[in-house]
Amino acid sequence: xxxxxxxxxxxxxxxxxxxxxxxxxxxxxxxxxxxxxxxxxxxxxxxxxxxxxxxxxxxxxxxxxxxxxxxxxxxxx
Amino acid sequence: xxxxxxxxxxxxxxxxxxxxxxxxxxxxxxxxxxxxxxxxxxxxxxxxxxxxxxxxxxxxxxxxxxxxxxxxxxxxxxxxxxxxxxxxxxxxxxxxxxxxxxxxxxxxxxxxxxxxxxxxxxxxxxxxxxxxxxxxxxxxxxxxxxxxxxxxxxxxxxxxxxxxxxxxxxxxxxxxxxxxxxxxxxxxxxxxxxxxxxx
Lengths: 77, 199
Fold this sequence. Notes:
The structure holds two protein chains of two kinds. Chain A is mainly alpha-helical. Chain A is built from two helices and no strands. In chain A, 69% of the residues lie in helices and 0% in strands. The radius of gyration of chain A is 23 Å and the shape is elongated. Chain A: This is Cyclic lactone autoinducer peptide.
């Protein structure tokens, strides 16, 4: 019974903490949200470029679909 | 898949608006990378979750890793659509997985003996088998890819010969067979695909 009570308390504390994070995000200034979005998009673009560049070194995609590669990534002698 | 393309275009446009120094060429590269990234995540999720529920998760991972690694260097035919790709990938993956389970009584050496010379010959003749959407123009790159494909092929056979569990060995051997079958001109014709030189 004690274990059950502890687990319930932990779960409630967890929900309270998550609620605080959500409230904190809502109170952020618009400019900060925009900066965070730009940062996230920047990271996404870095990963995408990394994947595209790595793919340019291979023959084809591992899967059985090959989207059209941009001309800038085609290696020439 | 137009939804996926639309999603990638939207993300790329958002990146172009908010991130500095992203011109049209870079945006095209980002779009391409995003498509590969998201499409692969979706396909892997579907295939691996299906494998998990069928109880062949580990075997599927072994197959996908050995198939993907060799195919990345050796190349091969491709499907024209996302769903065609997913269907073909799933058919090859689960077909090979269940075939390796069926053939688990056979020692890997018995499979390697006929398959290895066949795959070696196919690699010699056709590797790297490029695609019209991704032509390999550079002779240097072709040589590097062919060498890498041979190295991966030999390594995979060595690994399959050294593994004690026949099921995993067979999965690796069958993956090499299917990669090489995908490089044949007949396979290109069946799938309506073309090489980088248009043939």
